[in-house]
From TrEMBL:
Official protein name in the record: NAD(P)H dehydrogenase (Quinone)
Domain Pyridine nucleotide-disulphide oxidoreductase dimerisation: 358-464
Organism superkingdom: Bacteria
Keyword Flavoprotein: yes
UniProt-recorded Gene Ontology molecular function terms: flavin adenine dinucleotide binding; NAD(P)H dehydrogenase (quinone) activity
Binding of FAD, residues: 51, 321
Cofactor annotation: FAD
Every FAD/NAD(P)-binding domain range: 6-336
Swiss-Prot/TrEMBL keywords: FAD, Flavoprotein, NAD, Nucleotide-binding, Oxidoreductase
Gene3D superfamilies listed in its UniProt record: 3.30.390.30, FAD/NAD(P)-binding domain
Species: Nostocoides jenkinsii Ben 74
Length: 472
């Protein structure tokens, strides 16, 4: 395509705005149609807000454990302070302000590169035309390339309808006027585990309802075990193998909402002040004219794409949670960038999910990249594994870190680094050297012979690699 191709992007989340930046850089005329605010759920109601909330809870936790390091907080009269508390309205105000600021930064960047942003809803008329419905009416836009990046929304169930006050989705928690006295979190996947620990750290009593044998059932088993042990040690009640049947608001004699009742399938009823539903998400693909235009959807409603983000309709691409490929903002952004490079004739490599790094923002965090323990156990590869407890690391001792580990997977014979797991505070930062190693197919000897700072947590990565050195 030539330098003035017309690109229309539906959705301003990571997949959409990153694609817009690439398309503009490649000389296209770009229009973004967005209904919710630039940055999408990742910036406005999910990643940025939740991780800000989690960071606040982590900070409170550091204050509470500072005495183990010999640090004591005292008031102006010299008396020791034993309690630190979170003012939830202030916390939420900061959370939402940061999200809004990030959205404004994205808007400013798009404006700098000449991207036109339309606030409205979109309807795909055909492969070369999109309608934008705004307050001013309908505008039809010609397009050489269309990218669909509409995201996903929280899944709700008929037996557990959120009301935004007592029964909440993860998008509704930032309007709470006060800290929940007893929060019942339904769902022990990533979102449920992260927010359960966040509210526990902020001072709520928390019960986590998990339908599986352990929390974080889709993650590394060793890592999930550490997190569940931390949860229970800090006072969380974890109900394993307990499936929710219904959630209802409890009302007092005057009819005012006073709490919630979560009924489990085995008949137990758990009473709490609030319930947070974290039972998955559904793609936002209905009502956009996709099927009528010829875009194939999966039975779950996700847009079917290939590794360069093409849909079944020529000239139409898709990126992000609406595709169901992998629900990570980083993957959405990569899909969007790949789509624009492919559509506009730039050099491009297909999406490679084997080198994606991911992080769960519990405390400690769980970061992963490449080959997983499940894949190793499934067989088919000759793999050597080592796991090194973080508590042995001198820097960890200085920081008072007792939970966590580094786990590495290497190919037998060649020693090629195939994957890794880091469970540690700020594991999201520590996983980067392993991601480089997996992406560039370094062997463990190359990792082991690379200098690390002493003392540092990264020293455990090099030590784990040394343990995988082949001696015969």
């Amino acid at each position: 395509m030539n330098g003035r191709s017309q690109v229309v992007i539906v959705g301003g989340g990571p997949g959409g705005y990153e694609a817009a930046l690439v398309a503009a850089h490649l000389g296209a005329s770009v229009t973004v149609i967005d209904s919710d605010g630039l940055g999408g759920a990742a910036v406005l109601t999910d990643c940025v807000p939740s991780k800000t909330l989690i960071s606040t809870a982590d900070y409170l936790g550091q204050l509470e454990t500072s005495t183990h390091l010999g640090v004591h907080l005292v008031d102006h009269e010299g008396d020791e302070m034993v309690d630190a508390s979170a003012n939830l309205p202030e916390v939420n105000a900061r959370v939402l302000a940061l999200a809004a600021a990030q959205s404004e930064d994205i808007a400013g960047r798009l404006d700098e590169v000449g991207v036109r942003v339309i606030r409205g809803t979109a309807y795909v008329l055909n492969a070369g035309r999109v309608a934008a419905d705004t307050e001013a009416g309908r505008e039809e836009i010609e397009a050489d390339v269309i990218l669909l990046a509409t995201g996903a929304a929280p899944r709700v169930m008929a037996s557990a309808q959120p009301d935004g006050e007592r029964i909440l989705t993860w998008q509704q928690i930032y309007d709470l006027p006060s800290l929940p006295e007893h929060l019942i979190v339904v769902g022990s996947g990533v979102t449920g585990a992260e927010l359960a620990q966040a509210y526990l750290g902020l001072g709520s009593r928390v019960t986590l309802v998990s339908s599986r044998d352990r929390v974080l059932p889709g993650e590394d088993a060793d890592a999930a075990t550490v997190i569940e042990e931390v949860f229970t040690r800090r006072g969380m009640t974890v109900l394993s193998r307990s499936r929710m049947q219904a959630v209802e608001v409890v009302r007092d004699e005057a009819g005012a909402a006073s709490g919630v009742a979560v009924t489990l399938e085995d008949g137990r009823v758990i009473a709490g002040s609030h319930a947070l539903l974290a039972v998955g998400s559904v793609p936002r693909t209905r009502g956009l004219g996709l099927e009528e235009a010829g875009v194939e959807l999966s039975p779950s409603g996700h847009i079917v794409v290939d590794r360069v983000s093409r849909t079944s309709l020529r000239g139409v691409y898709a990126a992000g949670d609406c595709t169901g490929v992998l629900p990570l903002a980083s993957v959405a952004a990569m899909q969007g960038r790949i789509a624009m490079a492919h559509a506009l004739g730039d050099a491009v490599s297909p999406l490679n999910l084997h080198v994606v790094s991911a992080n769960i923002f519990t405390d400690p965090e769980i970061a992963t990249v490449g080959l997983s323990q499940k894949a190793v156990e499934a067989g088919g590869l000759a793999v050597r594994t080592t796991i090194l407890p973080l508590a042995r690391n001198p820097r960890a001792k200085m920081l008072g870190i007792t939970d966590g580990f580094v786990k590495l997977f290497a190919e037998s014979g060649s020693g090629t680094l195939l994957g890794g797991v880091v469970v540690a505070p700020r594991a999201s930062e520590l996983i980067f050297p392993l991601t480089i190693g997996v992406t560039l197919r370094l062997n463990v000897d190359q990792v082991a012979s690379t200098f690390t700072v002493y003392p540092s947590l990264t020293g455990s990565i090099a030590e784990a690699a040394r343990r995988l050195h082949a001696t015969s």
